[in-house]
Amino acid sequence: MSNSRGYYGEFGGAFVPPGLEKILKNLEEEFLRYKDDQSFIDELNYYLRDYVGRPSPLYFAEQLTKKLGGAKIYLKREDLNHTGSHKINNAIGQVLLAKRMGVKRVIAETGAGQHGVATATACAMFNMECIIYMGELDTQRQALNVFRMELLGAKVVPVKRGTRSLKDAVDAALEDLVENADNTYYMLGSVVGPHPYPLIVRHFQSVIGREAKEQILEKENRLPDYIVACVGGGSNAMGLFYPFIEDKEVKIIGVEPAGLGLETGKHAAPLCAGKPGVIHGFKCYMMQDENGNPIPTHSIAAGLDYPGVGPEHSYLKDTGRAEYVAIKDDEAVEAFKELSNTEGIIPALESSHAIAQIIKMAPKLDKNQIIIGNLSGRGDKDVQQVKEYIKNNS
Ligand SMILES: *Cc1c(COP(=O)(O)O)cnc(C)c1O
């Protein structure tokens, strides 16, 4: 899918200053060296099983299926992983890579704090120094996650420049990397950023799709008709989609956050409503102004609130292999309530976007058709926010 320069069609690449170019080239070489190394694979699988709790179940949502009266709905339960989402798959993979590279200091950026917590968790277990850059505004909005990271032994650095949010945290992390490249590993949290990060993160998240494929073949003796996942940067979606890309009979649907509605401009849906451009060192669909600068985004789900998207998703959209749709805040909240009530599973607000799409499409499909939805995370972190949303919107 991607050539050696990290392009997916016209998307991807690495638009970075020369200092960073060398570091990324070295990272690519190290990754390619270890990813197929049997002792690396064995070590990764050991931690995925005994620490993360994999394989995650592929659960037949019988009650929701009955209620909707259409296609059979299966949920890939990434919410049951240690720390409660798919993010730990990538954090464990990259921290093992850092360890092989002989690096003892790990840095990461975080917006809502989820990737920061996953990184801090992996670093705690492997006894690595961990520094998390976080926009100062985000440290205030997500104070509990800051405390979580500190409990896990990480140092959280509030970034006070610019808009004091995710973009500035990425810039600060990249500067740190260029300055401290000999002893530092930069752990990126989604299938975004310059090459080779989209490739590395997809690799470590693909365990989701590999397991789902094996599990559905065992349960139903055939592949699903549809696979559905929410798309922020796009890592849980790429993880589910990638092993199915060559199976042309499987339809692929990515779900972006429509926020208050695509027509309002208050959303974070670059694939549905953006244009190609360059952000954070790579080319993708992005939400931008006339000058190509990223514009403010909105989603009720903090983890989906990003103006760019993975280059491979941009490519899958243009080639037509995947379809991208958008779900609004209120629809996501309805799905959050529906899955809690019908199945006894409280989904993350991010994952609720995928659930909302499934609730829309399942009734129109035949009873013998199969949908697999990725339940990327659990919703305990979102209960307070949903309570307030319902209070303010009723
Ligand atoms: C961070 C997050 C997402 C969005 O990130 P992707 O890279 O698009 O997967 C989705 N779901 C949950 C639960 C998350 O924490």
Please give the structural blueprint.
Elements: E1 7-8, E2 11-12, H1 18-34, H2 38-52, E3 58-60, H3 62-68, E4 72-77, H4 87-100, E5 105-110, H5 114-125, E6 129-135, H6 136-141, H7 143-151, E7 155-159, H8 166-179, E8 184-186, H9 197-205, H10 207-220, E9 226-230, H11 235-241, E10 251-259, H12 270-273, E11 275-279, E12 282-286, H13 311-319, E13 322-328, H14 329-343, H15 349-361, E14 370-375, H16 383-392
Parallel strand pairs: 4-14, 5-6, 5-8, 6-7, 9-10, 9-14, 10-13
Antiparallel strand pairs: 1-2, 3-4, 11-12
Bound molecules: pyridoxal-5'-phosphate.
Description:
A hairpin with a 2-residue loop joins β1 and β2. The strands form 4 sheets. Strands 3-4-14-9-10-13 form a 6-stranded mixed sheet, sandwiched between helices. Strands 7-6-5-8 form a 4-stranded parallel sheet, sandwiched between helices. It is globular, with a radius of gyration of 20 Å. The chain is of the alpha/beta class and 394 residues long. Helix content is 44%, strand content 18%. α2 packs across α4, α9 crosses α11 and α14 packs across α15. The chain starts with 6 loop residues before the first strand and ends with a helix. Bound molecules: pyridoxal-5'-phosphate.
